[in-house]
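Subject: Sanity check before I submit

Could someone independently write out the structure tokens for this chain? I want to compare against mine line by line before I put it in a report. The sequence has 158 residues.
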Amino acid sequence: MKNSQNAKKSKGLSPSQVKAATLLVSGMSATDVAKEIEVHPSTISVWKTDPQFESTMNVLLREQRDACKEKLRALGQDALTVIEDVMKNNKTHPKEKLAAAFKIVDMLGVEDESKTRIGKLDIDYANFDVLDNTDHEKLLELKDLEAYLGNDFEEVEQ
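---
Independent answer below. Compare away.
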């Protein structure tokens, strides 16, 4: 951890608590963490109920998740090259090519609009010229209801 980030994360926590949070996030069991930092296992349980400790763990988890995402992004181009090679290789069995093709289509979200949609609003919202805050909130509630019911907006109106 960087010193400035460590200071933000550990505000109000002891060095042992920061180390415990780091070890827990890395996947170590609470029992093993307790042994590592030489505290009773119940102490770890108590710390885990502390809002500052929980917050610190969440920050560490977010950083860990972001680091993993960056590594995956870095591998993305290599993965696409491998898929492309499989798809273009004449020696690849057609069944394997078809499986790869379906996976690519699935990943692109061609059939699932939710994978390619930005936000909750669609053209129905854009058709309103001027909305005051009340109308805007009502529209959002209707759209949420539409999504919940699984019906089209037009069907709900009728």
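---
OP: Matches mine. For the report I'm noting this point. Confidence is low (pLDDT under 50) at residues 152-158.
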